[in-house]
Design brief:
The complex is a heterodimer of chains A (122) and B (594).
Chain A (H helix, E strand, L loop, with lengths): L1 E2 L2 E2 L3 E4 L14 H5 L5 E3 L5 E3 L10 H5 L5 E4 L10 E6 L3 E7 L5 E7 L11
Antiparallel strand pairs in A: 1-2, 3-6, 4-5, 6-7, 7-8, 8-9
Chain B lengths: L4 E11 L3 H13 L5 E4 L14 E4 L9 H11 L6 H20 L14 E3 L2 E6 L2 H11 L3 E3 L2 E9 L2 E9 L5 E11 L29 H8 L4 E2 L8 E3 L4 E2 L1 H6 L4 E2 L6 H5 L10 H13 L5 E3 L6 H12 L3 H17 L5 E5 L12 E2 L12 E3 L11 H16 L11 H20 L6 H15 L8 E2 L1 H17 L8 H26 L10 E2 L7 H4 L1 E7 L5 E7 L32
Parallel strand pairs in B: 1-2, 1-9, 2-6, 9-17, 18-19
Antiparallel strand pairs in B: 3-5, 4-5, 7-8, 8-9, 10-16, 10-20, 11-12, 11-15, 13-14, 14-15, 20-21
Classes of the chains: A mainly beta (122), B alpha+beta (594).
Chain lengths: 122, 594
Amino acid sequence: MGSEHGEIDVGIKVDEERCNRCGTAEEPMCVRDCPGDLMFIKDNDKAAITDNADCWDCAACVKVCPTQAITMQLPTSLVVRGVTLRGRGLRHKTTWTLRLRDGEVREYETPSTGKAPFTPNL
Amino acid sequence: MTSEVVEHNCDLLIIGGGAAGCVAAVEARERAPELDVLLLEKAHIYRSGCLAAGISALNAYLHPGETPESFLRYVVRETHGIVRDDLTLTMAAELNEQVRKVGSWGLPIPRDELGRPLKRGRASIKIFGERIKPIVAKRAEASGARILNRVNVTGLAVCEGRVVGAYGFGVRDGRFHVVRARRTLVCTGGASGLYRPSNPGGAAHRMWYSPFNTGAGLAMGIRAGAEMTSFEFRFIPLRIKDAIAPTGEIAQWLGARQINARGERYLEKYYQHLGGQRMTTQDRLHATLMEHRAGRGPCYLDLRGVEPRRLEDTVRAYLSMAPSSAMIMSDEAYYARAGGEMAPIEITGGEPHVVGGHGLSGYWVDAQRRTTLPGLWAAGDVVGGVPKKYASGAWAEAVIAVRDMIDAHHADISVGELELAEQCRAERARVFAPRAHRNGVPAIEMEERLQKVMDEYAGGISQQYGYSEGGLKLAKLHLSRLEHEQGALMADDVHSLLLCHDVIDRITVAQQLVAHMDHRKETRWRCYQERLDHPLRDDARWHVFVNSVRHPDGRIEMRERQVERAQVQVVLPPLSDGAVVRRRRNDASETNGQ
């Protein structure tokens, strides 16, 4: 939600430089996938969340965004700010970028469809 | 009201496109391709329901050596004897086939050298489930079933006591939908948001169960007079504090033990009489609260000594099911780097839920998952009497229900047009009433009022889950006032209208819940169902199901039903008076955390 001081950077935040509303005139994918029907397209054609207080932190919007424009940050009432998460759902895996409060960036991959990798020591 | 009306006709109506609904659509189309199957979903089936974020394990599965009977023995012990054997056995018999099937649709299931799914717990397997919901949803789309997203079903169409379809509204366009169906399956999931949640204000929706699972499917059945069972068996998760992350991932996978503030393994040290490390799920929560009262809290999961590589696996697992937990866990690890050692992770109880996939509460059904309303079947988290089914059990129930629904032996229903037209008008007026008010109460205020009443008088977090007759009486009073005040709800757009119906449905579910809590005058399941005024378990009087039916005048009639035991040998856990019973090793079972 905007204010005269700019954006509040908790919850689901859309980078308007990156958001291209999925390059389609149809329904963008974050608007389609939010289980709470919370994402919408603003007058400037950029995605936004109606109310972060209604969000479940499921990250469906984060993963489905083709330009990785959506970042998730936890509510300050739960955790001191500074940890952010981005993700990208690819065909057989999802890649994640977790940024810690000191700026350290950690990359993860999770298998998502198809045959599971053989992981005897998992 | 000027809203446009859209009419649909179908053979099979599926209400709710979650785990059960999507699998039901596929099963119906595969078994009977000639059938016109319509699925209604209030969000979009790709990410709707409680599997939206994904899951990292399937907690109902029969490992080698296990049978439906052994699964039943495990469940009976967990529920202190109150369980539907017929439902549990029929569900358990389907589990592995459903897991195999969804695996063949693309769900990655890691396997051991012999090709068997990797064991995580007694009835639990590891999966890579980040995309579990889109995988089943896309299969449902491809099945040829008609999928109608963005329609919130508000009520069942009932004609001469039979369910003949449903009513709902478009959550974006505000159109009114009228569906005529030869048979209807309700599988909308359980109810969150009845109690004041663990986290405050702007973080209130960071809860265990999906905040978008509002109990709508239960509420529509209650209003139509369906018999419900065991609402008093609430499910309360033992969670990693704040993140509300499942403890099972750490407890089962990393073998982390529960410790108190003194560093003692309190389950073994102080609660051997409840079974020690092998106590029931609810007793783990109970013991954690007791530690607090004994001055030895808070309690933790002990991560000291766990290899960092394995912690990274846990972060990965959380990314696939509860991404915020991965963030909090990594943040903890950040602190740990500063301090040298991974700190134990604090655990605590969450808010109570009505959810039949974990607990006992839901529709009273027969072995074919027929509800007491002819023409209506139920599956998944809305079905009572068969706990610990989780996602794979919801799939199992969906196929059991659908096989019976497409059976040609059921008489078709002749629809009384006149009765329906009248009912349709009434439901339409009820649905859109909040849109007509220019002044009134927004949904969020009524939701907060509901949650405050339930928290304080009906055993919420602030009461450490305990309650007694006097408080329940006040809960009933305030809920009936809230029910009357529903008429003042206002919605200035169609999304607000959805929120209004969410709270209306929650109030209906809460009223039924409190009636159940009041009726069972014993304590059978500590924390889940804990009567402070009747603190002992009383098998002589209360080894029965407590059921209920709401009459059209709003009166809730309570019924008791006998527990019918299948011929399976069962060993019950000790009575809650604390008598020490040491179980034999082969009777022990593990807690199945999710």
